[in-house]
Amino acid sequence: MAKSDIEIAQSVTMQPIDRIAEKLAIHPEQLEHYGPYKAKVHVDPDELSKRKRGKLILVTAINPTAAGEGKTTVSIGLADGLNYIGEKVCLALREPSLGPVFGIKGGAAGGGHSQLVPMEDLNLHFTGDMHAIGAANNLAAAMIDNHIHQGNELQIDPRRIVWRRAVDMNDRQLRQITSGLGGPLNGMPREDGFDITVASEVMAILCLSTSLSDLKQRLSRAVIGYTYDRNPVTIGDLGAEEAMTILLKDALKPNLVQTLEGTPAFVHGGPFANIAHGCNSVLATQSALAYADYAVTEAGFGADLGAEKFLDIKCRMTDLAPDAVVVVATIRALKLHGGVAKDQLQEENVKALQDGSSNLLKHIENLQHVYNQNVVVAINAFVNDTAAEIQALQEICQQADVPYALCKSWEQGGSGAEALAHLVVDACHVPSTLTYPYALEDSLEAKIAHVIQKVYGGKASQWSVKAKRVARQLKRQGYGHLPICMAKTQYSLSDNPRLLGRPKDFEVAIKDLTVSAGAGFIVVLTGDVMKMPGLPKDPAATHMTIDDSGKINGLF
User: Fold this and answer.
1) Is 310 a catalytic residue?
2) Active site annotation includes 551
3) N or C of the chain: less Cβ packing under 10 Å?
4) Looking at the structure, do residues 100 and 228 belong to the same domain, yes or no?
């Protein structure tokens, strides 16, 4: 019987975190230890900017199945593969959220023989970043209601408060609540709610901040609600940014861990890839680039969400630009895009694979022609893939004239990604200049139209009356220059999760817009975005055990 992910992780002897830091020439005095195998790293942004920068590799994917296509596993495998061929490499990845860990998706530390360790720590409390972010978010929420209770000098309209409370757990019961009940001493009753911590703007702000002062300034700009005259009220107006920064001062430091094969990894931050930009922190990425010759990072969901936001938001706000982009494709997902039912994906179907490859080809075209990136396809191997299906996908990549490699890192670790590593090194040395689908000077409507037409392959958009009104309001308030963050389904290039493959001539519904002024983007809502997931009928939590020695089983 094959070992589970946690059994594989527990069978490996980890290296002391000081040894991992030595591989990057990080000085011992920069480390703040959280036990023997994880540490926070004190980084000086000015010092980072003076160091020679390595090559940046972005890992993205096609539109995934519900189970995901293994971007994190491939990212870890690629880093181990680069290490295997003798390159100095470092990972920069997102932190897992407790909600999915105890829900249905499991952890986010990779899988098989391409994992981060200590696996249990990563998927549970880690270094406390999530708790600090939730505490900072909830401090602001408490100060909002206290301000109203104490006389409401800012004239905050309780009906137009947009700042919600946060907890890092899947709990549908908290999506919509009424707070402040029990009489005048308990505050003013109002509608309220909780988001999962990774969906809070504080998470997005922390991940885009480059220093404590930048963090404080971004927090101060965040909009918490509106006055009775419908003018925005910010964290700065409330006077909460200093206290929130105090709670986040340690959380801002990147966390250093390792892969099963001892490759260094910065794991830091984890915003949602639909409601936010879906990337690890800027500081973690900059640190990986400063301390290694190759930095491997990942963007959430498919390239139409994660990569688009990595390039259009994260790269715009920094001086980052990938030297190569790896697109992860799986045979099972391509068969789904080719019309195969979810319960039949294990069966061989070359025709469906060929039909569904249109999804892969669209993502390749976007990255090559919209963003001017060097692309490599990673075929993430699964045990049920057949020789005929693998050959068919390889022929599709050949016809598209894009480099490709079969990645077996889940099964073999770094050696299983050796071919992919060589291709990525070659791609990194081909000059490229990042281009964008829209300019920041474009109107809000034009930015959205460009993403829909150039990235999604759609025809037009349909705006609700509310979205049109909010767009006018945001422009009046001075937010029209910000980049956009499209919130849509991850399962399709369109806003309809049932339109698989490469849909054409579709329209995208623009239902609402919100401003994340602290993070620095406008969220464009194309549907109902779930900011507080619920637990499934059979939660992963019910299958976890811990023995008297503290050994955990059932975590995956």
Assistant:
1) no
2) no
3) N
4) no
